[in-house]
Amino acid sequence: MRLRTSAIGRAPPARLADRPDEALLQQILADVLYDSRMARTGMTLEQLGEEVGLTLQHLSKFETGGTVVSTAKLIKIAWTLGTTPEAIMAEVVERYRAKTAAAPAPDHPGLTRDTFTAVRAVRRPEHLRALTQVARAFGEMERRENAAGDRDERLDRADLGDLDPDGLA
Q1: Is the pTM of this model over 0.70?
Q2: Checking CA distances to 73, which of 16, 29, 53, 104 falls within 20 to 30 Å?
Q3: How far apart are CA 25 and CA 95, in angstroms?
Q4: Phi, psi angles (nearest 5°) of residue 31
Q5: What pLDDT, in 10s, does the model give residues 64-107?
Q6: Domains, the chain, ranges and CATH?
Q7: Is 78 in contact with 33 (CB distance < 8 Å)?
């Protein structure tokens, strides 16, 4: 059975915990709509409302994240702002990734959520062993750098033990 990939080029999340944060996506969409309106046209909400056939209050709720924008309304708004719905959604995805990539993984300080998710997805034992060796080497390198203070101490190939970097491809 083949999984369908989403519009952003990834397979749909298998677990509920891996799914995007809808409230964050809604707020980012609201920010993108506001930024697009101000940067592209400088229109007021009243002017935009007249063009797309929506009230000031309705548009205000879209831009504050209080109401979810329907697809039809998003298309109208995008075209009125001189852009496409695809461009708006691409900006939303880019901002979402930027915000979530910087978030620390749960119970693992120092790891980003993307790194944590990628490591959790590894299923083959030999790949997990290789990742563990790399993590240990980096941990050892960081420990040495902290112990050395300002001295420039580099990790050489011998410190990597039996890890073959060319075999990880």
Answers
A1: no
A2: 16
A3: 9
A4: -65, -40
A5: 888 888 999 999 999 999 999 999 999 999 998 888 775 555 55
A6: 16-103 (1.10.260.40), 122-168 (no CATH)
A7: no
